[in-house]
Amino acid sequence: MLLSVKDLAVSFGGVHALALSQFSLRDKELRVIIGPNGAGKSTFLDILCGKTKADKGQVFFNDTLITGKTEVQIARLGIGRKFQKPSVFPGLSVYDNLLLAARMKKDIFSSLFFKATRELNDRLHQVAEKVGLVPQLQKLAGSLSHGQQQWLEIAIVVLQDPKLMLVDEPAAGLSTEETEKTGALLLELSNDHSIIVIEHDMQFVQQIAKERVTVLVSGRLLMEDTFSVVRNDQRVIDCYLGRTNPQLEII
Ligand SMILES: Nc1ncnc2c1ncn2[C@@H]1O[C@H](COP(=O)(O)OP(=O)(O)OP(=O)(O)O)[C@@H](O)[C@H]1O
Known about the structure:
The chain is of the alpha/beta class. The chain is 35% helix and 24% strand. Bound molecules: adenosine-5'-triphosphate. Residues 12, 15, 17, 35, 37-43 line the site of adenosine-5'-triphosphate (ATP). Adenosine-5'-triphosphate (ATP) binds next to strand 2 and helix 1. InterPro entries: AAA+_ATPase, ABC_AA/LPS_Transport, ABC_transporter-like_ATP-bd, ABC_transptr_urea_ATP-bd_UrtD, P-loop_NTPase.
């Protein structure tokens, strides 16, 4: 297993945000985590990337215990995170955003990567091509569509070449076409990376969940199965009822 989690728990002011007895992920697996608001999904990713410290439990990544390590140490080991909130600089071009991200995070990139500017330039182009942003390289990030900004955010994570990518709500606020394109991009990226995606948009989940879907409710694991089993499970249906999330109507 690339990632394995045991008895992980964290509380905030007495509220149990996460109490996850077990979770594991294979190399190159794309796992989607769903669950109603406040289920602990973001908290889980926060623990995996070192942003939040667990009160107890263990996370092994590639057989290395990472609980207790800093965000930079965890990033160096190969875990990259795309947060829900946009973090690109709107007044800089797409190219300069990528360049800046590479320079700011140079301690987590291989030194080889920095040997020559041409090498770096080639890498930035290669990543831009992967996410379909080559025509926009010289455009200001602030002038991009919402979808293109998401792809730039994803590109910044890909630049780091992480073994595991943590992707928080990549389809939020995107058009149907952009959502489909984002799904296709994540599926393609899953050929080279393991990916955990948190998502509320069930159409999008259906598109990308080729393997197991994990359902969290109130910080706990409710079930893990294929999307078709999960969507028809009465407990999953019940935990979403009354929460008026139109994206979940497909269930
Ligand atoms: N820094 C924090 N301080 C206090 N409480 C927090 C903090 N972060 C999360 N929580 C609480 O922990 C619980 C889990 O929150 P979390 O954001 O992980 O859920 P989520 O499943 O990602 O929800 P959403 O789908 O709305 O993003 C919630 O009750 C939330 O209010």
